[in-house]
Specification:
mainly alpha; 185 residues
Length: 185
């Protein structure tokens, strides 16, 4: 793997250790988003969750936002996992081991989508303002997308500046969702 080889080659420099720590923090690596497939699922989940949050935030009630995001992400997750299992079966891979592996690799989709949602609930309960809490959740999703993009860049072997560009590009997706929410509300 390119990103691991680059990390091993640069071990020992203060700058590289800081980059690895920053990448792990932003990418959720401490929660186990260890490979490209899991990182991809986390990005998908963040985008789907944020889009559902932006749409549901137009209705203005916390239960509508929570249910919409939870159900939307669950449906996307189930469809994705089912497609992966069918694909594995079509290639001759069967058994409970493969099912567990597919479900484990898909878990970041749910984790990444529900992280901003938990923030929405907390802010709504503290402030009583669902609109503001949805905006805070969308900003959190945007930051998460930026971090995941940065991690993807680093894992692809990009330089620090290029990885920041990857992060900015990913965060731009979240920024579009925030702008859409603000324009539609």
């Amino acid at each position: 793997m390119v990103w691991r080889a680059a990390a091993v080659r640069n071990v020992g420099t203060v700058h590289d250790r800081a980059n690895r720590r920053w990448t792990r923090l932003l990418a959720g690596r401490t929660r186990g988003w260890a490979d490209a497939e899991e990182l991809s699922h986390a990005i998908d989940g963040t985008i789907v969750g944020a889009a559902a949050m932006a749409a549901a935030g137009l209705h203005g009630t916390l239960p509508v936002v929570v249910v919409t995001v939870a159900v939307t992400v669950a449906v996307y997750w189930a469809a994705d996992q089912y497609a992966l299992l069918l694909g594995a079966a079509a290639h001759g891979t069967r058994g409970t081991h493969k099912v567990r592996e597919v479900l484990r690799h898909g878990r970041p989709m749910v984790e990444a989508a529900y992280t901003p949602l938990v923030l929405v609930v907390v802010v709504a309960l503290l402030t009583g303002d669902v609109g503001t809490s949805v905006l805070v959740g969308l900003v959190a999703a945007t930051l998460l997308l930026g971090g995941l993009g940065h991690a993807a860049g680093r894992r692809a072997g990009a330089s620090g500046a290029a990885a920041i560009g990857w992060g900015a590009g990913s965060a731009a997706l979240g920024a579009v969702l925030v702008l859409l929410k603000l324009l539609l509300h």
